[in-house]
């Protein structure tokens, strides 16, 4: 089968409606939103474009299902998640292609996302049957204290476009394990993967109303009434800090439980004693995964002045060897950015940094022609500039130097963000000292990746609060109830 026939067949089979209360339906208005291939700008498919009415109908379905879902056995929920894991793994190539088509990353990376996204299903299938409480006597010995966990309740999940499968499973899997019902609003750029995944969850037997999916082009308008509805008990959001702040405000009147996974401005510190090959390989991963469009992406590369030239030379060589193209093509390592707005932002930051004196070692330009491509770019001599303050979200690496550990730590921490950070050193005492001082939720030590379903993903400061994955992940979807029992 030719690749385009396979793509067409896959796209034809993806559900393109809203999933509300177990029924696939159009928006009442009949509106549809177009999903674009960022490598060509061509429309891949049109899906139903929900609005406030459909979002509320989805909450109705979630609220109706909550009571019985909370009573379902942990084993049933665990088995469902495990079946979903098996199914995603069995259909990994299909999900990977769908992700590449609507989001743009190369197929090999999409497969990586599928494996990573599936791991949340497996991890939380294991957690679902391990939830416990506590039983103790009060210190005075006059009463018994029973501590138990209840599902937090109906949850609104808002996800971004950069990891269309993993950002959904990272929320859905712990919610299923905990017994919460859900309304998922995927990003308007990438609804297809979420719709395909919701259909998969239906096919493994997830009860009606537990997971509802409403893509919409009117995110704020569509979610505002739901956020004010007393039946909604939790909001979990992954996206930009600006939108996150607005949602924190919006969730206050209903006093919602909130988890926020927001922007990052990750430093990657290369110490004087780092293994330079390891640091370059780590920086390539930390910078280039997802074409630089990850909240964990290394935004600021900080290198000790004694090894800066060597690191910058090797790193620029690795960056310039990257092959750009449509993610479905063999050998392609760098796909397009998500849209023209994203490319303009990256392009603007690079030209303004260069105009302010930064030196271009490689790249620096948008690629002419179709698709939203931008060349892998390395800059040195970057002074005080927005390029190191803002979240870049592109294949651009500004390198700056430092002269001591303290200098590195203070430069690394000089940001309002606090999500991921990376340190490369072969000296264990230095590593621990630096790690302890970093004000970030996650640190990659001699490695350029921090994401793992078994680890608590999340940030501090303006990068948000709450953790996804690990033993902590399920707690976000549980409420603690304590019972005082007379002796
Ligand atoms: P990005 O700029 O990377 O697209 P956003 O924070 O704008 O990040 O988007 C992340 C998710 O939040 C998407 O699903 C988007 O539709 C949604 N979103 C954006 N603005 C709002 C809003 N005001 N209210 C609710 N959801 C929103």
Gyration radius, rounded: 23 Å
CATH architecture of the largest domain: 3-Layer(aba) Sandwich
Strand content: 15-25%
Give the strand order of the largest sheet, numbering strands 1, 2, ... along the chain. Answer: 14-15-16-13-12-17-18
Task: Put the structure in a nutshell.
With 487 residues, the chain is an alpha/beta fold.
Describe this structure in words.
It is a single chain. This protein is α/β, with parallel strands linked by helices and 487 residues long. The chain has two domains: 3-262 and 464-485, Aldehyde Dehydrogenase, Chain A, domain 1 (3-Layer(aba) Sandwich), CATH 3.40.605; 266-458, Aldehyde Dehydrogenase, Chain A, domain 2 (3-Layer(aba) Sandwich), CATH 3.40.309.10. The chain has 15 helices and 20 strands. It has helices at 3-13, 52-71, 74-90, 92-103, 107-127, 166-178, 191-203, 219-228, 241-250, 276-288, 308-320, 340-355, 386-389, 405-413, 428-437; strands at 18-20, 23-25, 32-36, 43-48, 134-137, 144-151, 155-158, 182-185, 211-213, 234-238, 257-261, 266-270, 298-304, 359-362, 377-380, 396-402, 420-424, 442-445, 464-465, 478-485. The strands form five sheets. The chain has a seven-stranded mixed sheet with strand order 14-15-16-13-12-17-18, with helices on both faces. It has a six-stranded mixed sheet with strand order 9-8-7-10-11-19, with helices on both faces. Helix 3 runs antiparallel to helix 5 (107-127) and helix 4 (92-103) packs antiparallel against helix 7. The longest helix has 21 residues, at 107-127. It is globular, with a radius of gyration of 23 Å. The N and C termini lie far apart (72 Å). The mean pLDDT is 97. Bound molecules: adenosine-5'-diphosphate. Adenosine-5'-diphosphate (ADP) is lined by residues 158-161, 185, 187-188, 219-220, 223, 239-240, 243, 246-247. Adenosine-5'-diphosphate is lined by residues 158-161, 185, 187-188, 219-220, 223, 239-240, 243, 246-247.
């Amino acid at each position: 089968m030719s690749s385009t026939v396979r793509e067409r067949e896959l796209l034809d089979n993806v559900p393109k409606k809203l999933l509300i209360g177990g029924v696939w339906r159009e928006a009442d208005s009949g509106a549809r939103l177009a999903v674009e291939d960022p490598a060509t700008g061509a429309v891949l498919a049109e899906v139903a474009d929900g609005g406030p009415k459909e979002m509320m109908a989805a909450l109705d379905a979630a609220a109706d299902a909550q009571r019985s879902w909370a009573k379902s056995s942990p084993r049933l929920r665990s088995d469902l998640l495990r079946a979903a894991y098996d199914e995603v793994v069995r259909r990994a190539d299909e999900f990977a292609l769908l992700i590449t088509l609507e989001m743009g990353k190369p197929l090999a990376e999409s497969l990586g996302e599928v494996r990573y996204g599936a791991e949340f299903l497996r991890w939380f299938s294991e957690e679902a049957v391990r939830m416990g409480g506590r039983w103790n006597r009060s210190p005075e010995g006059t009463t018994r204290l029973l501590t138990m966990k209840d599902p937090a309740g109906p949850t609104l999940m808002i996800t971004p476009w950069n990891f269309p499968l993993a950002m959904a499973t990272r929320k859905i899997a712990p919610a299923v394990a905990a017994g919460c019902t859900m309304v998922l609003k995927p990003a308007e750029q990438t609804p297809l993967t979420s719709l395909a995944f919701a259909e998969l969850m239906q096919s493994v037997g997830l009860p009606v109303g537990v997971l509802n999916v409403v893509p919409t082009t009117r995110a704020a308008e569509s979610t505002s009434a739901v956020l004010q509805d007393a039946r909604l008990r939790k909001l979990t959001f992954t996206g930009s800090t600006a939108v996150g702040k607005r949602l924190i405000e919006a969730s206050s009147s209903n006093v919602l439980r909130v988890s926020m996974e927001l922007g990052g401005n990750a430093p990657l510190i290369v110490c004087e004693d780092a293994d330079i090959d390891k640091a370059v390989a780590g920086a390539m991963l930390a910078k280039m995964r997802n074409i630089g469009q990850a909240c964990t992406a290394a935004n600021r590369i900080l290198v000790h002045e004694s090894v800066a030239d060597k690191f910058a030379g090797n790193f620029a060589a690795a960056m310039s060897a990257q092959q750009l193209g449509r993610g479905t093509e063999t050998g392609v390592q760098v796909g397009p950015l998500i849209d023209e707005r994203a490319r303009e932002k990256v392009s603007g930051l690079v030209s303004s940094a260069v105009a302010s004196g930064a030196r271009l070692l490689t790249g620096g330009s948008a690629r002419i022609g179709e698709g939203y491509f931008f060349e892998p770019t390395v800059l040195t001599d970057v002074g005080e500039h927005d390029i190191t303050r803002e979240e870049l979200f592109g294949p651009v690496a500004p390198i700056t130097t430092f002269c001591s550990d303290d200098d590195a730590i203070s430069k690394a921490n000089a940001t309002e963000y606090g999500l991921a950070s990376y340190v490369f050193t072969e000296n264990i005492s230095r590593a621990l000292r630096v790690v302890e001082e970093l004000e970030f939720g996650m640190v990659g030590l001699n490695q350029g990746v921090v994401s793992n379903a078994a680890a608590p993903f999340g940030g501090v400061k303006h990068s948000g609060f709450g953790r996804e994955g690990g033993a902590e992940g399920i707690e976000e979807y549980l409420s603690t109830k304590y019972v005082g029992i007379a002796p």
